[in-house]
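Exercise 7. Given the encoded structure of a 404-residue chain, write a plausible sequence.
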């Protein structure tokens, strides 16, 4: 009766079920997975509401790429960051998820393949399957920092590969694309007639500066390259449903054909876009301060403990390595069941080894600090139990992920 695209198991997993049971019983949960900025205790300017008091939103004047004024506002956003992106290269979408769908439609036929990073956010398989595409993964390697395994990536290419997806910075590793990696990818894509798609929603949230870091593919030449972002992360406004694609001039007309079929971006959010981007700067500042403070706290609290933090350059998340005395699922179930602390297991993001836990730096500080303290104590207790007696007095972190 239904399409074969819907082949996923909708039954709740053990962690989801335990969380539902705890919440039903009224248990206070220390949620270290919070990624919704509107639920993270941030202060939103009330002027955001005023931005929608615009009589122009009462008229419907659809344009496939979006109205000129909001595209000019997005162009100004890039200009403020040193990138020249004219409004004519911008196409508005309701979200980056929709932007992916548009680009997959543009670049691939049913049965073609999209190459995506591993580990990364678990969304690509759903988006690709809904477009009747196949997903192949390329490996991010870790050695005191994350990098693209370019040799492994090249080995994953097939005659049906149509695009390579970059999440920059990656979610959850927080690693940025480097210039040498970009040069190699542009050359590879040019030789194979493959497109680059960069998801740059977390690009504004770097913890340090690095001249070798690539923050956007907006002006990449040498191959077909697309960049995506939106208000969800740039301004901490996921409920406003406005994203965008920076596209080569050669692709804009075809993207407009796709967008004209749906016309999904609402008139009110387009009318308000310029003010939302400006006002969202205040929210972004709070997010940057929050994530930086929580990262500093986690590093200090976990220093020398059995829970180590993998290197992170930006974004809203950190990855913790914990003793492999149990599976990641059991770690998460035990933390939630015993300590009422909610974290995500590494396998949610396709980490290739165990045991890793993913924690959101967006969490309110009082919750974050208590949750990290409980996690540290549990990790230390479990690690001591796993050590031989003559080593139990010295608890050390494990060797970071090395691709074993």
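Solution.
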């Amino acid at each position: 009766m239904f399409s074969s695209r819907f082949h996923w198991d909708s039954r709740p997993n053990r962690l989801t079920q335990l969380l539902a049971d705890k919440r039903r019983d009224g248990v206070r949960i220390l949620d270290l997975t919070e990624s919704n900025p509107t639920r993270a205790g941030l202060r939103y300017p009330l002027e955001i509401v005023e931005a929608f008091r615009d009589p122009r939103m009462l008229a419907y004047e659809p344009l496939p790429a979006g109205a000129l004024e909001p595209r000019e506002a997005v162009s100004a956003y890039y200009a403020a960051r040193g990138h020249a992106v004219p409004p004519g290269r911008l196409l508005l979408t309701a979200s980056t998820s929709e932007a992916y769908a548009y680009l997959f439609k543009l670049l691939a036929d049913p049965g073609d393949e999209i190459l995506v990073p591993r580990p990364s956010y678990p969304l690509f398989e759903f988006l690709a399957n809904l477009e009747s595409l196949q997903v192949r993964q390329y490996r991010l390697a870790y050695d005191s920092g994350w990098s693209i395994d370019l040799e492994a990536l090249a080995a994953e290419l097939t005659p049906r590969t149509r695009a390579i997806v970059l999440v920059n910075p990656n979610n959850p590793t927080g690693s940025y694309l480097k210039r040498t990696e970009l040069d190699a990818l542009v050359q590879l894509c040019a030789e194979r007639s493959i497109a680059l798609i960069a998801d740059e929603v977390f690009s504004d949230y770097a913890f340090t500066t690095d001249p070798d870091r690539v923050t956007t593919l907006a002006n990449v030449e040498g191959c077909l390259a697309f960049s995506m972002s939106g208000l969800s992360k740039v301004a901490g406004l996921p409920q406003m449903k406005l994203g965008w694609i920076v596209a080569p001039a050669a692709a804009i007309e075809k993207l407009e054909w796709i967008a004209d079929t749906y016309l999904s971006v609402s008139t009110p959010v387009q009318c308000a876009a310029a003010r939302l981007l400006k006002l969202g700067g205040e929210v972004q500042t709070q997010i940057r301060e929050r994530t930086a403070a929580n990262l500093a706290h986690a590093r200090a609290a976990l220093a020398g403990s059995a829970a180590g933090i993998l290197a992170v350059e930006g974004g809203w998340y950190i990855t913790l390595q914990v003793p492999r005395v149990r599976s990641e699922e059991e770690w998460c179930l035990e933390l939630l069941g015993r300590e009422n602390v909610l974290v995500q297991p590494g396998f949610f993001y396709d980490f290739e080894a165990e045991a890793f836990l993913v924690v959101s730096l967006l969490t309110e500080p009082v919750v974050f600090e208590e949750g990290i303290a409980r996690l540290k104590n549990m990790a230390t207790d479990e690690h001591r139990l796993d050590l031989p007696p003559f080593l139990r007095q010295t608890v050390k972190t494990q060797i970071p992920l090395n691709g074993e």
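Remark. The first helix runs from residue 14 to 24. Students should compare their own answers with the one above.
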